[in-house]
């Protein structure tokens, strides 16, 4: 065998290996971590087996792998709805979702690979409208935990019907219409004015009570004084007159002079006549 024939054989063998390698490589696919795959067969449809992580074989042209992400992913769903007292409510729900791996063939068959776009907005809107309508605007604020829990329970139950797991549900945004916001502000101002008015009324009441107590004290003092005059008779009046006369004489005669009252008559002792030493 000549060298040319040997090289020709080697070339043919290498070409065969390359062709086989290309065919084998085209029949392989990888499933990364956190993903699963289902196989679509042109003759039998979606196979029920769910393929796990790793490298796997499939029949080119006849079969096609469909890769799904089974890790939790976030999604925000905004909804505009009405409360029990007919107030407009803007509410946004943040959801962490993932598919049930064993139900991926069913999910792909019924909903397709974009199942979250088909399911989450519709069921979230449905549940939020139903739950929010059970509370008035004030309760949505004061009972937010209860509202969130009820939304979580109802939405988890609805998502499970489509093979979707909701790992977390939270209300991230909750606002009301402009009219309701203005009404709340006016109510707060009115409450502040009412508190101020109540304070002024209480202050006036205390001032009134103080005035009444003072008047009652003055009246009681007058009654006691009148009673004293009634009990002492004219003697009390005469005593006051004598005190007044004493003050006048002391001022007129100077210090050291004194007034003696005896037997109901006024006697001046050691009182010189004006002008005499």
Automatic annotation (TrEMBL):
<comment type="similarity">
    <text>Belongs to the prohibitin family.</text>
</comment>
<feature type="domain" description="Band 7">
    <location>
        <begin position="27"/>
        <end position="188"/>
    </location>
</feature>
<dbReference type="InterPro" id="IPR000163">
    <property type="entry name" value="Prohibitin"/>
</dbReference>
<dbReference type="Pfam" id="PF01145">
    <property type="entry name" value="Band_7"/>
</dbReference>
<protein>
    <recommendedName>
        <fullName>Prohibitin</fullName>
    </recommendedName>
</protein>
<dbReference type="InterPro" id="IPR001107">
    <property type="entry name" value="Band_7"/>
</dbReference>
<keyword id="KW-0496">Mitochondrion</keyword>
<dbReference type="InterPro" id="IPR036013">
    <property type="entry name" value="Band_7/SPFH_dom_sf"/>
</dbReference>
<keyword id="KW-0999">Mitochondrion inner membrane</keyword>
<keyword id="KW-0472">Membrane</keyword>
């Amino acid at each position: 065998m000549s060298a040319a024939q040997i090289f020709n054989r080697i070339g043919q063998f290498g070409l065969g290996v390359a062709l086989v390698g290309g065919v084998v490589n085209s029949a392989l696919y990888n499933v990364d971590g956190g993903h699963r795959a289902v196989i679509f067969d042109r003759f039998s449809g979606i196979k029920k087996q769910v393929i796990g992580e790793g490298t796997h074989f499939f029949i080119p042209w006849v079969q096609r792998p469909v890769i799904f992400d089974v890790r939790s992913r976030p999604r925000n769903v905004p909804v505009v709805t009405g409360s029990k007292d007919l107030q407009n409510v803007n509410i946004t729900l943040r959801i962490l979702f993932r598919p049930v791996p064993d139900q991926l063939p069913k999910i792909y068959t019924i909903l397709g690979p974009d199942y979250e776009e088909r399911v989450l907005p519709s069921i979230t809107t449905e549940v939020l409208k139903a739950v929010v309508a059970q509370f008035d605007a004030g309760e949505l604020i004061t009972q937010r935990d209860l509202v969130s829990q009820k939304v979580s329970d109802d939405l988890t139950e609805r998502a499970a019907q489509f093979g979707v797991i909701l790992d977390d549900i939270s209300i991230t945004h909750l606002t009301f219409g402009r009219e309701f916001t203005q009404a709340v502000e006016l109510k707060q101002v009115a409450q502040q004015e009412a508190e101020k008015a109540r304070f002024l009324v209480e202050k006036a009441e205390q001032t009134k009570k103080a005035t009444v107590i003072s008047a009652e004290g003055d009246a009681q003092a007058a009654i006691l004084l009148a009673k004293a005059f009634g009990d002492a008779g004219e003697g009390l009046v005469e005593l006051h007159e004598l005190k007044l006369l004493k003050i006048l004489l002391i001022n007129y005669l100077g210090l050291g002079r004194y007034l003696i009252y005896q037997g109901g008559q006024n006697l001046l002792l050691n009182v010189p006549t004006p002008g005499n030493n």
